[in-house]
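re: that chain from earlier
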Amino acid sequence: MTVYVFGHRNPDTDAICSALAYADFLQRTTRPDAVAACCGAPNQRTEFALRRARLAPPKIVMDVRPEVSDVCRRDPVVAYEDDVFSEIYDRMKVHNIGAAPVLDRNGRFIGLITLLDLLNVIFEGDSDPVQARKVTSSIDKICSVINGQMQHHVPSDEKIDFRVMVGAMSAEGFTERLHQFPAEELLVVSGNRPTIHLPALEHRVRVLVVTGGYELSPGLLHLARAQGVTVITSSFDTATTTMRIKSARRIDHAIQRECVTLSSKMPVEDARKLVARSRQKLFPVLDDKGRLFGVLSKSDLVNPPKTQLVLVDHNELTQAVLGAEESEIVEVLDHHRLGGSLRSDQPIRFINEPVGSTCTIVARQFRAAGISPTPGIALSMASGIISDTLYLRSPTTTDVDRETLAWLEGQCSVSLEQFAKEFFEVGSALRSHPARQVVREDCKEFVDRGHRFSISQIEEIGFELFWERRDELLQALVGLRQERQLDFSALLVTDIISNGSLLLISEEPEFWEQINYPRLDRCLYKLDDVVSRKKQLLPLISQLLENATEAVYTH
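^ sequence. v structure.
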């Protein structure tokens, strides 16, 4: 089963590069089925890093909730519209099933057939003597179901509406009734009774079935050839042969063409609600082209398998891929605070270290296992460290980050100083993206003391573009807050040259008046020496919330 290695929503360079590197590590150690994934396309800086590392970006997966394709049976027993009762009944009996999807001979899905539908086929028209004798089938199918032998065969594989006549009466009565129906529709069943065979052949019936293991005499067989009558011999008695002929009826008119089908891409939870309202026992599963993908029964939805996830660069479900709360989280590698929303049924590996980058943690896994990363993977991890620590200038930087980056430089044979310079020169979000995208590009949601809020961060060279676009960025933050029903949304714009930031906030909550930084304008603050969302801004907001809570209790 595939295990997906995921960074957080709106992934930054550290999230994507740590996912790629750790998936590579797992593939080379314990999980060859590991796949790096992300919740959105990489930003321009990340794309630059991946191009330099000659790595493909992770697979984009926006929702990991199990889908119908994950739980349905892929090799169902099927029926075809030109099958006959006995064929489908035998197939259902062998496989112990009560229903089957029906296809045409081109593999196109048509409908559903159930055992009850089949019984209706075999007993069709029993209240009407004329309809009871009608059998829609082909000569070859009839010969097959009675295990017969062709004594004389007039080739024909076409579907025919036969009228079955049993020659169990006097020759006079039989001959009189024989002429009441068109000869080309008649199938006559008789034992060793030449007085029945002769008028049937003279009338040029379509098929003559001789039962009891008997055969036509040479003279009558010569007449059959001359009249163009197919002659089949059956080893069964007349009653059994007649019953079996009725089981050669085609199923096409008994197919449930209006039935509930499921898309292979439908989430299991949605499918569970749909099938609960239906009396169907079996549900055909179709792909995007409407072709049969598999089948599903209600029992298949009772305990569906869960998607396995490894979370990197986050540990809060509010930041995880959609559907993470319904998945099995098997491992976490992170360098952020504990969010408190993560739960697991079983013990899991949880590595959370106070370092500047998740890629630092992943690189340490390579070193501990004695595995040398490829140059591309090494540069990928170096990119994550450079991005998250602003090339070791952020206050989140530790000696572990510095030593790890030096080790990676030896693995990737690239001047990281020159690489970092080029990396930060690429992809100004303010220069290349609309405001709505800017505030969502690297956005994380948090819950603290009952308040839900988001903090987005971008790194720029200087603040000139910010001043030009301040108003539209503020409007975008307000829109983000309303869309996600947050208490407020904030954007931290960091100047990687001056190592300072500007903070723009959608609105100033009541507790905000205690912030100890200069207010430049409405909803805008200057934060000198603040470059880290994780280690500086988030603790600041948490402290403001705590102070406000204490003030409420004091009064």
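The longest strand covers residues 451-460.
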